[in-house]
Specification:
The complex is a heterotetramer, with two copies of chain A (615 residues) and two copies of chain B (348 residues). Chain A has 615 residues and is of the alpha/beta class. In chain A, 36% of the residues lie in helices and 21% in strands. Chain A has 20 helices and 23 strands. In chain A, helix 2 (88-94) links the parallel strand 5 and strand 6 (98-107). Chain A is globular and about 85 Å long. Chain B has 348 residues and is α/β, with parallel strands linked by helices. Chain B is 32% helix and 18% strand. Chain B has an eight-stranded mixed sheet with strand order 2-1-3-4-6-5-11-7, with helices on both faces. In chain B, helix 2 crosses helix 7. Classes of the chains: A alpha/beta (615), B alpha/beta (348). Chains in contact: A-B, A-C, A-D, B-C, B-D, C-D. Chains B and D meet through loops of B and helix 10 of D. The complex binds thiamine diphosphate (TPP) (2 copies), iron/sulfur cluster (SF4) (2 copies) and magnesium ion (MG) (2 copies). One thiamine diphosphate sits between chains B (65-68, 84, 108-111, 135, 137, 139-143, 148) and D (262-264, 290, 314-315, 318).
Chain lengths: 615, 348, 348, 615
């Protein structure tokens, strides 16, 4: 039986099934393997908000998508090329995103009458020809495994647990992937349970062999190594990157790390990771609520720790008053908000970028603080380090915005050597002589960091307005105005300490697209594709949302039109218009889903072809 | 692994270590009303500090908002006048990060029992080694006189012109129910007892809760006279002393016995009651502590003063440190490069 | 003075008043995991509703966030799936505004003991007539498995990979310390007892707190097996019945006596102990209630199930109404024009 | 002894002394009397943040200022004409605001060495000639009272308590005020305590006689009746106006009134007032914290009450999450924020306008709600009624912004007849047939208000996103986007239901000043004075801050320059620039004090004389 093997640029595969089907697991294996194979990639796990939704239901579908390529990849893929569907519902839910002509690997067992009706199919799509636009491979996985593993006399209850591995084997064949990484992983994971190991190993092989031996499968697809810079790589999610970023920053600054946090989706992974880093001396308090979370961090900051609190929207709402205290006491504090779809409880498992204005203004009184946003899973690491640098250098709370998409998505990350990382410094008060808690560094306006235990620097801080310098409580009007302006000025001066914004494409002209946070991936993809197709446009990504890079105003004035895609109703757009008094075109999506690069591409094309400004 | 903070803190204390009370008096004028009970609470606290024999820079007072919240300005140590109700979580974070410090929380009946109630019960549960001084004046004073969660039912205040409808918390009972290890009560008129209890609170490893009746001259004057004035106090309070029988009254001729589970007052050597029937106080018995706590609002019973309970339980921050040390001892110091590399990675 | 709301609510109930459990089952599928304890708690609740004999539109279920928070969707009455920890204040406002309603709160060990802790103790203190069903699975489930304030020390969860360091709250003790009038405990495997307790909670005037052990199949499976499984439960739980001696064990041959203030297990007719030594339960005795509550984490003692305490205290909302009625009776209905005019005004 | 009596247009008198000196009391009496005398007026109480600060200290000074005139009055006065100083500190603190040539009535007793040193005087200003620019009347009040009351043999401890009344008597003489109102008040207030009554009555008279009989006093000043529209008047503070406004609105809407609140300066007076209105059936819960305050109100709203929560900055910060829930559940709710100087605890007793952006954006996710601001004490009444009208008609939470200045200041208010007040209607669901909780009114997009007890309308609401119409929980992306837009649209449509913004002065041209909230008083005063002096400028006051009046954009474009004075660093300025993409000149004051009209006047003059735009 001859099979053609075809070299392709990139592909997107999606494993979909019931919460219980182990799709997250095989998805992770496939991405690891693709990484080993030298592809650039981007993954996204997509699971129901229910913990274990009833089997076979539409809302119970759990999926894992991998977009891998021999070129740089910035999103987890718009359209699916290969869909592994373990049951009818997972087919139903994902079909709309399957590329015409795409491949479907369907497990017939999941298409029995009960499953079909739960999925709302009146007839079986595997049989009624409704899938004629696709290349469908339907098989009864359990039967195939049994058949293949007969010899091994493996207990049939075990076989039921290896269906996902069998499917993975088929996927590996389809893309000619080496299986050793997964084989090792199986051996490691199930160490001690030999029967489980054999079952899985054979199931994996059986999946491969099934595809190899099945005339239906005529083609293998090869996605060659990408030209990623040389080095050691790993896959990393945004939440992992934040967690290890914090540990790294603490080491760099030579400070103890304290986390005060309260669990909340989709930020909890950061708490999980840090609670496991006891070896690194991380002290964490799972607080009674978000207020206690941030307040305990403020207390730790007062005591000289690199203090952090992590949360998502509803938690950020609860932290507002304490954030104001951190602004007033001018203590270094890292506040991480992994945004989700609001308002209120909203759609807890879906990403959104709708906390920007709250991060900016969600405190009573004039309480400015710096805001940074991470662009991708790996960028969460660098952004975290930068946030810590600024918090310590300016003695200020800093908000880092991530979101449920980059928090849980993963991409290959070139593992940096510790030595190569930027230095981060903590500035403690040195001299008791002439000490005053609000004496400021001239350049940064940073106040003193004199922690309990420093002899002769005993002092009191708090939420009441205080006299500049001495830090004594003051209710004097002129002093208050000076302090309000100083707190603002301190944040503004950060603009002098951060890189200028960089324009890609035309340095001036008609249209500049500005992305922030996770919109980066889709925006860059669209930008590069349009450039390739000869369109004239420019692109700028903003990591710093407060203050803006000092050259941003100049840049904006070099373009006729500014376009800002956001997963909200126009929050950055609003900030830019207010600050630079220049109209900005917003592209908004508020569906609890990231942009597809194609969506942006179409929007941009229409803008580029109709020249009038759209606001 | 030592951080720069450890190194900075390792610097020896150079100054004198023998303090007097006035070393803890900053030269600011106390802005509490003349005759405020808080002023009488401040002095035993200041007098206690030298007794601790630790450098003053190792002492931190954290307060919330309320008249009581001003306390840190009047104690020349490190201090944090935080926001309403949040002194405890701030102190908790500070103590976990810095077990070397002596951390004190000064709060009020509103600050601690109202907006701060959740942090209070969780502090009692966690048993972080902080000492809580709760100034209970049974009113919100700084906001000029509204009823608080410890105000009496029917109390007329600006926000209850026809009388408060709530029944008050019994702070010591609440603390016990939440699992507090050290629970005590005193008042602004007995500074010696106060200083003694604060000392015990300091020595206690874990969260120590000291409720302090505090007379607000302006908004709730005389609320505690029955328990604090020379004429009435012997008959209306009972001083709890570990191992001693519960006797009170002028001439200590009255005692407390249990009938069923209910405490009753008896006159010694009358109605056939003798000293042997009288309950003997035991700080280690949490059931007894609760029985005593429940005497609080029974007007026919004397109000317990002193230490209701003092039992041992490892403070939370010690557990945190132990877990870290144990992990490091068994698995070794964390290797940052290895953390960055993760479990599975590949070469490109 | 009657408002339009009074008028609208005065409309007579037109439909049938004889309900069956299924009248309270909306046609949505229950999205709790198969085998979740919550499912077993739902059914006695649904079965109780018809017994109440009130129109279903008069019943409101308020919940917070957590797996337990989904409850209102599965009960065909009015419902409010609110935000994390805030079900109680919402229910409190609702009940004060609308004493005519039967208000139920469904919450979890995290929702009620962690973020909602302050509202919980204040509800216990105020005694608003709401019935609290706390689904205690000793873990945060909806967020996929972190330890909660009722998790056991050492419990390994996603956020305590090396074991939780906190000691848990004892929810019934906390409720008692906060002044709760009705305190009970049950579990998901005994629906009859549950239905009975919920009925009693409904009948109780004032805040009724029912802690319900709830097995989380996914994140804390088997946490309560000792107390719920057929083999072990007789020996490890004791059913509290008012006026009855505290007996338990297969063949009820074991009893609880007090030695000093500490409960001990005795074998009847052995070591000279007889039934008469055994504590007789009394729902009205709050000291006894606390003694029983304190048995909770003592592994050598059976865990109390049933109603620990049920005492009478006027519900808060009744006091509110009384105060208003009394004021109106004595001073007359408020005259708006007079209010606008104020005490002192002048003509221009 | 002949005395001249001179008619003057207006005057500002300030009674200043120790917290214990009863200045608030005599201040109130003087304003009542001025009201009776037919003046327009505006008062401001100014007391220390300490409850009873130590006697004689600078920070312990308590004062009450009355600005009264025969013309309309909008502020409590820039400069003091008559200063009653009971001690050295009160002179020291207030001298800077005393008009050159102004009158000082000083109580010598308060100028003993101890008082002088507490006030930081090295020599006695009453003697060292440093006050030569002023008309100083120094006397030992106690001695004068004793002398005058000898005959009455009044216990001297009582005399000590009547010093303030004596001073009031002098002030009454100075302005030829009838004393009967105060005499009646004394009799009423001290009913039963005859000795106290006599003491006070005589002290008052003695004060009058002292001035009358003292050759130093050569002049009496007469401020004639103003031309206030006819009617019954009272003095009212902003906080009182909010409280009775709520009771009125509830009556008008025929709803029970529920208040869930937690005390906080300077909003607590509203709670105090409402807790006394039991006769009106007001149900209030003094909650355990601000979160419980708003949540209990949300519960009451769900039950069919007109539900209210009152607070100030720090409390508003804590209410953010629950406000989001109110937005999501679309329940009517009134949130009153009496702003104070922030951030954090800041300066609790001082006014500021720095919560506007937090009111606008201080919630996670996209959570829009209407915002109104009151312009003056009396306007708090109308603004409250309007807020209730909108909350009920659109089923939405509404934020009303007041501040510590108008909250505590008072002005005469023409008492409306209940009948004359606008109608307010609650819209309850009527028909169980076809009922769905999120079925909307076409015009207003208002959802259903079906309260527990309505047969056949049983339903569930909550913080999760829900399907429009049915109100079923929905995590569908398209639905979410529709709902986000609908919630926004609902707020936007309010612009069609509120009055257009009104420009005073030139209808177009060079410069338009826009005021909001308490800035109104100083802005209008400055505007009118400049117009009188022939300057060409225009003025517009904004009550509605979200949404803006629909004609605002058109108006802005009719002017070359827009000037916005605010007690913050430019929050309305920011909103206007963002929305209308037009540069706005900000005039900022962040000193915990209201603008002086003269400050604005100067600023405007300089703008009007230098034509270039200042941003
Ligand atoms: C978040 C917040 N809410 C409310 C207030 C207003 N406030 C300040 S102190 C206080 C109550 C103080 O009562 P208590 O703790 O008994 O202190 P006391 O003044 O009686 O000593 C309140 C409600 C505030 N400052 N912050
Ligand atoms: C303000 C806020 N903080 C945190 C969360 C995340 N969260 C949802 S449920 C939950 C804990 C639930 O635990 P529990 O009450 O025991 O409910 P269970 O899921 O165990 O039934 C948390 C932390 C949230 N939704 N809102
Ligand atoms: S108001 Fe009361 S509590 Fe506050 S300082 Fe004055 S006397 Fe003390
Ligand atoms: S996760 Fe646990 S508590 Fe939640 S539904 Fe599943 S079994 Fe029940
Ligand atoms: Mg108090
Ligand atoms: Mg739970």
């Amino acid at each position: 039986m001859t099979k053609i093997s075809e070299h392709i640029e990139e592909a997107t595969i999606r494993f979909a099934g019931d919460s219980g089907d182990g799709m997250q697991l095989v998805g992770t294996q496939f991405s690891e393997t693709s990484g080993f194979a030298g592809n650039d990639l981007n993954t996204f796990p997509d699971y129901p908000s229910e913990i274990r939704a009833p089997e076979g239901t539409l809302y119970g579908v759990s999926a894992f998508q991998i977009h891998f390529s021999r070129h740089p990849v910035y999103t987890s893929g718009d359209l699916i090329d290969v869909l592994v569907a373990m049951n009818a519902s997972s087919l139903k839910v994902n079909l709309p995103n399957l590329r015409k002509g795409g491949i479907i690997i369907a497990n017939k067992e999941g298409f029995d009458p009960r499953n079909l009706s739960l999925a709302g199919f009146t007839s079986n799509p595997l049989e009624d020809g409704s899938l004629k636009d696709y290349e469908v491979h339907a098989l009864d996985i359990s039967r195939e495994i049994k058949a293949a593993l007969e010899s091994q006399k493996i207990p049939s209850k075990l076989i039921g647990k290896t269906k996902n591995i069998f499917a993975l084997g088929m996927a590996y064949w389809l893309f000619q992937r080496p299986m050793d990484a997964t084989l090792n992983w199986i051996k490691k994971k199930f160490r001690g349970k030999d029967d489980v190991i054999t079952a899985n190993i054979h199931a994996l092989q059986a999946g491969w062999d099934y595809a190899a031996g099945n005339p239906e499968f005529t083609r293998q697809y090869i996605v060659d190594r990408s030209s990623l810079p040389q080095g050691q790589y790993r896959n990393i999610t945004g939440n992992e990157a934040v967690a290890i970023g914090l540990v790294t920053a603490a080491r760099k600054a030579d400070l103890p790390l304290f986390l005060g946090s309260y669990p909340i989706t989709p930020a909890t992974d950061i708490l999980h990771a840090l609670s496991g880093y006891k070896k690194f001396g991380v002290r964490h308090l799972q607080a009674e609520d978000e207020i206690a979370g941030i307040c305990s961090a403020i207390g730790a900051a007062f005591g000289g720790s690199l203090a952090v609190t992590t949360t998502s929207g509803p938690g950020l709402s609860l932290k507002t008053e304490a954030m104001g205290l951190a602004v007033m006491t001018e203590l270094p504090l890292i506040i991480i908000d992994v945004q989700r779809a609001g308002p209120s409880t909203g759609m807890p498992t879906k990403p959104e970028q709708s906390d920007l204005l709250m991060a900016m203004f969600g405190r009573h009184g004039e309480a400015p603080l710096p805001i940074l946003a991470a662009a991708s899973p790996a960028d969460c690491f660098d952004t975290t380090l930068e946030a810590v640098r600024l918090a310590l250098k300016y003695m200020t709370p800093v908000i880092v915005l991530s979101d449920g998409y980059i928090g849980q998505a993963s991409e290959p990350w070139k593992i940096p050597s510790v030595a190569s990382l930027p230095d981060i410094k903590a500035y403690f008060s040195e001299d008791a002589a002439g000490f005053a808690p609000y004496k400021r560094d001239e350049k940064t306006l940073r106040r003193q960091w004199a922690i309990p235990g420093f002899e002769g620097m005993e002092h009191r801080i708090g939420g009441l307005e205080k006299e500049d310098g001495s830090g004594k409580v003051s209710q004097d009007g002129a002093n208050h105005e000076r302090m309000v302006n100083t707190r603002q000025e301190k944040v503004d001066r950060i603009a002098l300490d951060i890189p200028d914004a960089v324009v890609e494409g035309e340095s001036e002209g008609d249209l500049l697209m500005i992305s922030w946070g996770s919109t980066y991936g889709a925006a860059r993809t669209a930008f590069e594709r349009l450039r390739k197709n000869g369109y004239q446009l420019s692109f700028l990504h903003l990591r710093y949302l407060n203050p803006f890079p000092k050259n941003l105003g100049v840049i904006l004035n070099k373009f006729r039109r500014i376009v800002v895609p956001e997963l909200n109703t126009g929050q950055l757009q609003f900030l830019l218009q207010a600050k630079y008094v220049k109209p900005v075109t917003g592209v908004h999506k508020v569906q609890g889903k990231p942009f597809k690069s194609t969506e942006l591409e179409e929007k941009l094309v229409s803008l580029l072809t109709h020249k009038e400004i759209i606001v | 692994m030592k951080t720069v903070v450890d190194k900075l803190l390792a610097r020896p204390h150079t100054g004198n270590l023998v303090y007097s009370a006035k070393d803890f008096k900053p030269d600011v004028d106390v802005r509490w009303c003349a005759g405020c009970g808080s002023i009488s609470i401040l002095s035993p606290a200041q007098r206690l500090m030298p007794e601790l024999g630790i450098p003053k820079e190792k002492i931190v007072y954290v307060s919330g908002i309320g008249c009581s919240g001003r306390f840190p300005y009047y104690m020349d140590t490190y201090g944090f006048h935080s926001i309403h109700g949040r002194a405890l979580p701030i102190a908790t974070g500070l103590k976990i990060a810095r077990p070397d410090l002596s951390v004190w929380v000064v709060t009020g009946d509103g600050d601690n029992m109202s907006i701060g109630g959740n942090h209070f019960i969780h502090a009692c549960r966690r048993n972080v080694d902080v000492n809580i001084m709760m100034f209970n004046n049974e009113v919100y004073s700084l906001t000029k006189g509204q009823y608080s969660p410890t105000s009496r039912r029917g109390q007329v205040t600006k926000s209850s012109p026809l009388g408060a409808l709530d029944d008050p918390f019994n702070p010591v009972a609440l603390a016990l129910g939440a699992g507090a290890t050290f629970v005590a009560r005193g008042h602004d008129k007995d500074r010696t007892l106060l200083q003694h209890m604060l000392k015990r609170a300091y020595e206690h490893k874990g969260t120590a809760f000291v409720e302090i009746y505090n007379n607000c001259r302006i908004f709730n004057d005389g609320a505690f006279d029955l328990y604090t004035s020379a004429e009435t106090r012997e008959d209306h309070t009972i001083l709890l002393e570990h191992g001693k029988p519960l006797l009170f009254g002028k001439g200590r001729n009255k005692g407390i016995i249990l009938d069923g589970y209910t405490p009753r007052v008896i006159l010694l050597d009358q109605s056939g009651h003798s000293l042997s029937d009288v309950i003997v106080h035991n700080e280690k018995d949490s059931t007894l502590a609760f029985i005593l706590a429940n005497m609080t609002y029974h007007e026919e019973l004397p109000r317990p003063m002193g230490i209701l309970q003092a039992i041992d339980r490892t403070p939370y921050e010690e557990r945190v440190v132990e877990q870290i040390e144990h992990e490091r001892a068994t698995k070794g110091e964390g290797d940052l490069q290895a953390l960055l590399a993760g479990d599975s990675n590949w070469l490109v």
